[in-house]
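Weekly puzzle thread! Below is a chain. First person to post its structure in token form gets bragging rights.
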Amino acid sequence: MERLGGSAAILPVIRPLGEFAGELADLETEGGAVSLDHAPPIRKLDRILLLGPLVHAWKSRVPAHVAALIEEGVVVPATISDSLWLARDLAALMDEIETEEADWERLSSLVPEELAGWWQVTLEFLTIVTEAWPNVLAELGRSNPAAHRNAMLAVEVERLRRNPPRGPVIAAGSTGSIPATARLLAAIARLEKGAVVLPGLDRELDDISWQAVGSSSEPSSCGHPQFGLKKLVAAMGIARSDVVDLGSLPPKLAARRRLVSEALRPAETTDLWAVERRKVAEALHSGALSDISLIEAANEREEAAAIALALRHAISREGRTAALVTPDRALARRVAAELRRFGIRADDSGGSPLADSIPATLLRLMLEAVCRPKEPVAIVGLLKHPLLRLGLPRDRARGAAEVVELIALRGGTGRPDAARLGALFAERYEALCRAPRKPFWLGRIGEDDVAAARELLAALQEALVPLAVLREAASVPLSRLVHASVEAFEAMGRAEDGTLTELYRGEAGEAFAGFLRELVESRSNLAVKLEEWPDVFATLIAGEIVKPAIGGDHRIAIWGALEARLQSVDTLVLGGLNEGTWPETAASDRFMSRLMKGELELEPPERRIGLAAHDFMMALGALEVVLSRAARV
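Winning reply:
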């Protein structure tokens, strides 16, 4: 609009790669939706809940010769929650296999004698995925999400080939690390009005080094920042020299690009550093590092404070913007908290864990107090939770909670039961009143305070009835547990006017309501012991994120590495530059050895280092850069 001088314009359609359901539906007459001969994807929660029982039942059907390989016996998974955690990891492995379009059947060609004992057991465990899980999906008429995404991308490629759009199609920001995405990018590049913007392609790297990228059989060769782009360029059927620059860089940034390219050249050609020494000196003389600062903090807390100060200083100049880029979500939350001390609400696109949100903590405390009566700490936390209302005014409920804590939950209470706390309160209050030496605070508690406490406990006991009645059952169907938990949860948070507005207020409340709705609609017939239900719930909610609402300070943002590729600011802070965080440690897969992954032609864990290096290289293209790390993490 600025370039058009305020004139009217039809804005372009901007869509993430892979979201083509609308086009397929609109082109049904041309075969778009029909050609997607693929079952709809299974929901993430349903997949975990359906995989969990398969994992849990596995140890009961392990062949004797496989079980004999483990001297201590097959003891994992021990509980339903263990099974669900393993189901999460198994689902991630399925996504990896299907994303990279590997063939599960090739696992059967592995010779068990060539594997260590544990990997032989794992090979048997993976029959859950190769044999049992396809039958479950077929019965439900569903597919795995990664396979469904690949199918949609394939149909979109065919649609573009058959019906090329009349207008321009531009794909930007993707390195084509997913094979199906790479084929889509290649199809867009072949369109008459198609264009692909390759992020961070190094056209200045010498030909010898370019050929060396990924040429070695060593896993470390996948750790170069240009590894993914080299594969993408090859998949598109073009040479690196065919790619043109969109524009020219200022002299300082051009010098910085040459310096970073030289520093990150492939290990096979590092002997050329001696030859290219003059190029490095010229880049430094041209100011390649003139606008780069370094923060070395003593610990993570000091690093967060320093980053917050750097961001605040960056926007102190009129019209300036700044952002933090880090893969460390804990650091991002620390920085956001430090910024709030300055009255700045940063736009954190990564969000926060739903499990730690205020409504979720109320439910977790309730489950802990009812399902596993132990120490009074959980009950005190429940009674003092800011969302606990039980049909009472908030002030009255909080005051009553203080009285209950003083009388019933202090001084050798044993294992109080939240569902029968009223009886314990009456017993201890009567004993205190009869005691010859009364505590000093008892005289400050009036009859109205005691009446409010009894009213609170009566409401608490009534609210917890749906869960408490399930204690006698050996195991309870998940659907019944969820309904009982939601009923008790809403009774806990119901206001004096009978509404649940405060309980589900804001983005956290809406996200939690959506999660509970999905849990209620789940198709699982899993049966859970009541004492295991808190752990099972914690497993199911793990990984759920609350996305913040738009409305933060537009001058400061907190991004992930992928978002930073597509946006620009005046000052960019790269936080958490510690080994193991950025980049992540190249850890082996818990289900598949390197030999097994190699048999399936999967990329080694070192590929993540290459992606992190590419993101780092891209981020250094900002005008002003602050590098940050903690000496101790």
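Puzzle host: Confirmed. Bonus trivia for everyone else. Confidence is low (pLDDT under 50) at residues 24-34.
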